[in-house]
Amino acid sequence: GRQSSIGAGVLGRFDGLSGSYGDAADMRVNGVVGRLADYSDSTSPSFFGASVDSGAFTAYGINQTVDGVLDRRAIGGEWRYYEDKKSLFALLDYDINFKALNAAQVMGTANAFDASLNFMLDHRKTPSLSIRNALYGASTSSISVLQQALSASALRDLALQRTATTNMGQVGITKPLSDKWQVGGDVRL
């Protein structure tokens, strides 16, 4: 049925199945198969992937196709650290098909000075790397039609050219003033 993104390389809500075996504290193996619930395109991509969780770390691989064409093939990892009043999360997603970094992110929170501090550093392709990005500005909404005019490498190059890179940094603070009031702010670049 309809499922929320579970991480591990799945980029959005999807219709499909996910399952796992094992204990995440020790080692758990996960699998996922489905079709993105992507109604903005004429054809929704289908995918399958696998991941391994071991404690705070997840490693994954995912393969996604659209109209019979390789849309995305990525490997990546996620790392999570949670402790009382501290947290840290890191993500790395590399697309093997495009030979490019799709996303790198580090974010965290900590309590200090009787306040909550937070930060985020984010570098990513926007939208996420996908062969479907070649459709932006095209006179068709079909990858199959573009594939008739372009080789696989030309289609990949066009998709990469039509995908922007976004960098963002953010730092913030929230300080309680009373049981009912707090003040906070952040700076973003």
Approximate shape = globular
**In percent terms, what proportion of residues is strand?**
over 45%
Overall structural class, as computed from helix and strand content, comes to: mainly beta
Termini separation comes to 39 Å
- Enumerate how many helices there are, as a single number: 2
Pattern of helices and strands? EEEEEEEEEHHEE
Radius of gyration: 20 Å
Number of strands: 11
Biggest β-sheet: count, sense, barrel?
11 strands, antiparallel
How are the strands of the biggest sheet laid out side by side?
1-2-3-4-5-6-7-8-9-10-11
What does it look like?
With 189 residues, the protein is mainly β. 9% of the residues lie in helices and 59% in strands. The chain has 2 helices and 11 strands, in the order E-E-E-E-E-E-E-E-E-H-H-E-E. An 11-stranded antiparallel beta sheet has the order 1-2-3-4-5-6-7-8-9-10-11, with no helix packed on it. A hairpin with a 2-residue loop joins strand 4 and strand 5. It is globular and about 65 Å long. The model has no long low-confidence stretch (mean pLDDT 87).
Task: Give the topology, please.
Elements: E1 2-3, E2 14-23, E3 27-36, E4 46-54, E5 57-66, E6 69-83, E7 86-95, E8 100-112, E9 115-126, H1 143-149, H2 152-161, E10 164-176, E11 182-188
Antiparallel strand pairs: 1-2, 2-3, 3-4, 4-5, 5-6, 6-7, 7-8, 8-9, 9-10, 10-11
Short description:
This protein is mainly beta and 189 residues long. The protein is 9% helix and 59% strand. It is globular and about 65 Å long.
